[in-house]
Write a structure and sequence with these properties.
It is a single chain. By secondary structure, the protein is of the alpha+beta class. It has 21 helices and 22 strands. 35% of the residues lie in helices and 17% in strands. Strands 1, 2, 6, 7, 8, 9 and 20 form a seven-stranded mixed beta sheet that branches. Strands 14-15-16-17-13-18 form a six-stranded antiparallel beta sheet, with no helix packed on it. Strands 11-10-19-12 form a four-stranded antiparallel beta sheet, with no helix packed on it. Helix 6 packs antiparallel against helix 8 and helix 12 crosses helix 17. The longest helix has 23 residues.
Length: 624
């Protein structure tokens, strides 16, 4: 026998699998990571970037909890940008362009340093199930391995099918085989299995691009990165570039629409509404003669570029012909064409908040297998599944984040509560408490929780305590200390705001939209000596204090709302309750509640088709 019994087996070495394996092992479980190709751990199969709108908040939350996506991104970044800086701080979202090859290498280095983690390169073809409990896996090499918990993070590999024009072939992604057996077995065990579609664009030889005809997009001068643990080091950055399609490009692409697997009906899976293929955009927005494209380098020392926004499954000849009609790409050569990939997923209303399946005890799903899209969403699910698989094997309480505590809480609650009828992607608009869930305060929200369960290290916890104390001390000083007009009037006038006529509290000046705390500190001797703005962590402390003071009223109001809504989360519902007996509920509510089996009245209130009057009926029945 090759293997002893494991506490947790993680199937799949993508972003979800890597975070899941690391979390469970760091918490103390004996973990085995099974992947088809150990050379492609955490491979960036699509664009070579982490973060972006709302996704950047997720990466910072993963980092605050003790995950590795932020650290690896910072270590391998080739460009940093903070998106949405023209909007309020609830919308600010960090984004890191990474070296694709170094990213995968860095993740492997991280995992290989975790002592409780073993590796096995193989394909899992079936699960070992005893009644309603998972007991292990079986691989293509005929190896059977026992485990107390199994986490499936199969990504796009379950019965994956690649489409390029009229050509279709099996594959989990270009160059990698797909996996079969698991979907069929789970379907036999009563699981609902559906098909989903995603896609990717051409990869272009940078030597054949005329960059002088594109719009250069440089990185930010202020490099913040993702991790709260270590300051990123980046002495130079690689630029991205903007390009645009045209009416002529669209006409060329339309020539191939009759050969498109999507339009011809060969693809049955549902595709992403918010990241559609170029042919889908042309069809859906037929009134637009131009669409924006983002040309992104795939690393420091490679000539390969990714054309974000040009995802396609049209014939390769049509793709290249259209590409060469984009300004700057007239002589473009490609490494490989864009393609669509269709794969199996399991509607996530079959899961609990821990990401454990309702039907099989000890079996967890994380990542694209749950109908999500994006490295960040996958990594967050993997982290939470890894934590909860460990806690379950040790008979400990589950670790669940609420919608008011984290974007990760919003993500998981949306998945298991709301119908997923297209690839799920996180947006700031999905978080009703987004002013509380900012990218700057993820550590203040989550690190102590992670430390209590044993995932956040002592080093991370000590940094958190230091930051918390310094932020609170700075805020207290700003609220209590007054400043005289002579010290600050010249600065106020310089920034286009009115002078003071008498002493006022410093915090009141900071409420003016023209004034930043960093600028104000230069005129306050008691503070100027305390902060070095060349120091990454000092900038973080100052920015966090500034946001808290400037938006105190909004934050307090949002906290009050969250507290009121949270009361519904404390009203538990039995998973065995027969909703059909309550004839006062609408028929749709009875059907949805019976299928999803919400754990709380709060979760029930978020189910599509369950009205406020239905919630009132439940509340009355429960004596509330």
């Amino acid at each position: 026998m090759i293997f002893n019994k494991y506490d947790v087996i993680v199937v799949g070495g993508g972003h979800a699998g890597c975070e899941a394996a690391a979390a469970a092992a760091n918490l103390g479980s004996k973990v085995l990571l099974v992947t088809m190709n150990i050379q492609t751990l955490a491979q960036m199969s699509c664009n070579p970037a982490m973060g972006g709108i709302a996704k950047g908040q997720i990466v910072r939350e993963i980092d605050a909890l003790g995950g590795y996506s932020g650290l690896v991104s910072d270590k391998t970044m080739i460009q940093f940008r903070m998106l949405n800086k023209s909007k309020g701080p609830a919308m600010w979202s960090p984004r890191v362009q990474s070296d694709k090859t170094l990213f995968s290498i860095a993740w492997r280095n991280v995992l290989e340093q975790i002592s409780n983690l073993d590796f096995w390169q193989d394909t899992v073809v079936s699960l070992k199930i005893n009644g309603d409990k998972i007991v292990g896996i079986k691989t293509a090499m005929g190896v059977e391995i026992e485990a107390k918990s199994v986490i499936l993070t199969n990504g796009t590999f379950l019965n994956g099918m690649i489409h390029i024009g009229e050509k279709s072939f099996s594959g989990g992604r270009m160059g990698d085989a797909s996996s079969s057996g698991i979907s069929e077995q789970l379907a036999e065990n009563g699981f609902e299995v559906k098909r989903m579609k995603t896609g990717t664009p051409v990869r272009i030889d940078g030597r054949t691009i005329d960059f002088s005809r594109l719009i250069e997009q440089k990185g930010d001068d202020e490099i913040l990165g993702f991790s709260y643990l270590k300051a990123p080091v980046l002495k130079q950055q690689r630029s991205c570039y903007l390009a645009y399609t045209s009416f002529k490009v669209h006409e060329t692409l339309r020539k191939g629409f009759h050969l498109s697997p999507m339009f011809a009906g060969r693809i049955k899976g549902i595709g992403p509404r918010y990241c559609p293929s170029i042919e889908d955009k042309i069809e859906r927005f037929s009134d637009k003669n131009s669409h924006q494209l983002f040309l992104e380098p795939e690393g420091w020392n490679t000539i390969e570029f990714y054309l974000n926004g040009f995802s396609s499954s049209l014939p390769d000849t049509i793709q290249v012909e259209a590409l060469r009609q984009i300004e700057g790409f007239e002589n473009a050569k490609i490494f490989k064409p864009g393609y669509a990939i269709e794969y199996d997923y399991f509607p996530p209303d079959q899961l609990t908040h821990t990401l454990e399946t309702k039907k099989i005890n000890g079996l967890f799903f994380a990542g694209q297998i749950n109908g999500t899209t994006g490295y960040e969403e996958a990594g967050a699910q993997g982290l939470m599944a890894g934590i909860n698989a460990h806690l379950k094997t040790n008979d400990k309480d589950p670790f669940i984040l609420s919608r008011a505590e984290a974007y990760i809480g919003v993500l998981i609650d949306d998945l298991i509560t709301k119908s997923i009828d297209e690839p799920y992607r996180m947006f700031t608009s999905r978080a009703e408490h987004r002013i509380l869930l900012r990218q700057d305060n993820a550590d203040l929200r989550l690190t102590e929780k992670a430390y209590r369960i044993g995932l956040a290290t002592q080093e991370r916890y000590d940094k958190f305590l230091d930051k918390k104390q310094r932020v609170e001390s700075l805020i207290d000083f700003l609220r209590k200390k007054s400043i005289d007009p002579e010290s600050v009037n010249a600065f106020l006038v310089q920034n286009g705001t009115s002078e003071l006529t008498q002493k006022v509290k410093i915090a009141s000046i900071l409420l003016r939209p023209q004034i930043t705390l960093e600028g104000l500190i230069e005129h306050i001797p008691e503070l100027k000596s305390q902060f070095d703005f060349d120091n990454y962590f000092d900038r973080e402390i100052v920015k966090s204090a500034e946001i808290t003071v400037k938006y105190e009223g909004y934050i307090q109001k949002e906290n009050d709302i969250a507290e009121k809504l949270n009361r519904l989360e404390h009203i538990k519902l039995s998973p065995d309750f027969d909703y059909h007996q309550l004839k006062s509920l609408s028929y749709e509510a009875r059907e949805k509640l019976s299928k999803i089996k919400p754990q709380t009245l709060g979760q029930a209130s978020r189910i599509s088709g369950v009205s406020p009057s239905d919630i009132s009926v439940l509340a009355v029945f429960l004596g509330r």
